[in-house]
Records
---
Amino acid sequence: MDLADQNILFIARAPIHGGTENVVLQLCETFKPLVNKIIVCAGKGFDKDALKEMQIKFYEIPDLADKSPKTMLDISFKLRQIVKSENITVIHTHHRMAAFYVTLLGLYKKCVFINTSHNTFYDKIKFTRFSYNHAHLIACGEKVKENLTNEYGLKDVTVIHNAVKPFSGLVVLEPSLKKWHDLGYYLIGNVGRLTEQKGIEYFIRSIPMVVNRHPKTKFFIVGSGELEDDLKKLSIEQGISEYIEWMGYRKDVQNLMSQFDLVVLSSLWEGLPLTPIEAFSVGIPVIGTAVDGTIEEIENGYNGYLVKPKDSKDLALKINLVISQKIKQKMGGAAKAIYDKEYSFDVLKTRYINYYRSIN
C-alpha cells in the first residue's frame, strides 16, 4: 500500500481513558506525516483535545454498544456519509461492533479494511466471524491472536503489541509520595479504572496481610470508576483505610509510577494491558494476575511476579516477598529492558507502518 495516497478512518468506541484510545492516538501520530488524511470516528468521551492538537478531524457517533434500531440506523447513516464525504480509502476499526458495521454496509468493498482486536471474547461466534471475515486482522497480543484463531476460526492474524511512549522529562515529585518515602515507607501503586475488570477488591483484601508483616507500607489507588464508593467502603470494613490513598484519575501515570516501589495489576481479564508496560517504561516491576495478555508481559521472577486472579492471599504473599527481598533494582532493570525491546512506541510505529505497507 502506498501510504501517501491514503485517507484513513479510525473507528473506536467511546472510551474512558482506556488502552484502545491510547492506541488510536498513537496510530494518528504515527501515520499523520505519512498519509494524505486521517479521520477519527468514536463515541462521546474520546480525547478530542489530543486530536485537535494533531489537527485531525473528529466525528462523534452514538455508542457502538447500543443496539437499538434507531441507534444502529444513525450509526450506519453517519458512517456511509463519512466514508463518502471524506473519500476514505482505509478503514481501521478498534471494536467488534465497528467491524460489524463495515461488513454490514459493504464498506470493505470500497476501502482497505483493517481491524485491531484489543480483548479476548468467548461469545457471538457467528457474529464475530461475520464482522471480521473481510478484515486484515491484528491482535494486540498472542493470547488475543489465539482467541481469534482457536475460538472463532479466523486466520492470518498478525500480533502487534500495545506500547507506551517513553517517559521523558524530569520527575515531578508528588508531595504525598515524597512524604511517605521520606518516612521510610514502601510505596505500592494500583493503576486502573475502578471497575469489576480491574479486581481492585482483591487488591484491597490483600492489604491487611501485607501490613501485618510490613506496617510501613502505603498503597496508592490511581483511577476512578463506578465502584469507587464500594471500594472505599470495603477498605473501611477491612480496617486498612489509613494505609490507602485514593489519587483519582491522573494523566501523569508514568511520572507517578516512577515514584512507586512496586505496581500491582489485579485484573480479572485483559487483552494486553498497558499498566505493566507503563511501569516497565520507568523501570518498576509489576505483580499481576495470570490472565490473558498479562502473562505475555510478566516473566515470573524476572520483571515481576504472576499471581492467581481473585486470590488475595497469593497476591499478599508475592507483595511480601518483593518487599522482604528488596529486589526492586534487579527486577526494575529487567522491566526496562523488556520495554525497550518489545513495548516501546518506536517498536509499535515500525511494526504498524510495515504492516500497512505490506497490504496489496
---
Amino acid sequence: MRVIHEMKLVGRLASGADEWSCPTCGRRIALRRPPDPDLTVLEPGDESAVHVGVIEPGPTSTAAVDKYGLGPVQEIPRPSKREPERTPAPTPDDADRAWLAALGIAWDGGDEAA
C-alpha cells in the first residue's frame, strides 16, 4: 500500500499559479489552472508518497480516501533525477582530417594544416 499525504492550498504565487504544500513531508508544488495548466515541483518532499490535494482537510477527505483507496488521483510522470547520458563528440578519421587540413584547419592543434 502506498502512503497518502494530503497537500494543502497555501497561497497564490506572483505567476498566478496556486502553491500547494504537504505538511507531512515538505513537498511544495506550483499548480497553474487551465487554460494553460502546468505543474512545477518547488520542493520534492517524499516522492514515493501519493499526494492528494485537499482544500478543506477533515473527515470527508479522509473518508473518501479510505472508501475509494486513492480516489481520483492522477499519476503524474516525474522527470528522472539522473543526468542524461552524453554521447562523446566523434573524433575525425583520416579523411576528415585531410578535409580539415585542406581548409587550413589543424584538428589537433599541430602544424600539419599549413
---
Amino acid sequence: MNIDTDQFTVRRAGVSIPVSRGGEGAPLVLCPGLTSTQAELHELIELLRRDFDVLSFDLRGHGLSSAADRYSFAEFLDDLAAVLAALDLPAPMLAGHSYGADLIVHYAAEHPGTVGELVVIDGANPIPAPFITAADLPEFRALWEYTTQMTKRGTPSQVLLTAPEILALNLELDVLRSGIDLDIDVVGPGILDRYRKIDCPIHLIQAASMASDNAEGRAPRHNRLWQAGFDRLLRERPDISSTSLAATHALVITHAREIAQIIRSAHARTD
C-alpha cells in the first residue's frame, strides 16, 4: 500500500522542525519520546496511515530537526504548540510515547476544547515517587552515554543532545510527573493535576514490564513504581480506557501492530 506523504518545516525560536503528513481519515498527531525519531517510529506511522491522516515530527535536536541552544520541557512543549498551530487541525487526536506522552497531556490541559482524543503510550505517569534516585544515577548516566555514542550522526535517527542533557531532562520530568523535588524537598501537584483539567477522552497504553522483566537490580523497583503511577491515575480518572501489553518501554517499536490496532479501536469507540 503506497501512501503519498507531504513534508514541510515549522520554525520556532531558531529551530527547524520537520513535519511529515500522510494517510486518510481523522487527523492524528504523533509525538515521539526523548531520543526517539520519526525514522524509529516508521512502522507504527505507516500502520496508522491506513486509517488516519497522520502527522509526525522530530523533537528539537532529534532526527531531521536542527539542534538548539536550550533543551527543556517548556521548550519542547512550545515546539509542539507551534507544530499544532501551523497545522490548524480541528480537534485532532494526539498520541505520544514516553516523553511525548507528557507533552501531549500538558498541551491538552493547557488548551481545553482543542483536542479530540489523547492516546498516552507508556508515559505521562503520575508516579508516587521520583523514578531516578541517587542509587539510579550511575545506571542512567551509563545508559545515556551509550545512547549518544550509538546514535548515527547525520541520519534521520540521530540524537544531537549530550548524555548530561538527556539525564537533566529525565530528572526534570521526574519532578513534573511526581510533583516531588528531592533536591529541595518540595512537593507540588505533579502531572495528575494536568489530567484533572483534560476534557477529552483518554486512552492509556502501558508496558507491563516497563524496565524489562529482569528480576535483578533496579528493574523490579522501577516496574513497581511505574505500575503504581498508572494505578493511581486510573483511580483518579476511572473514565480512562487502558490496555496493558506484555512489553517493555520500547513497545512502540516492538509492538507497533498491536498499538496501531488499539488506537483504531479506541477511536472507533469515541467516533
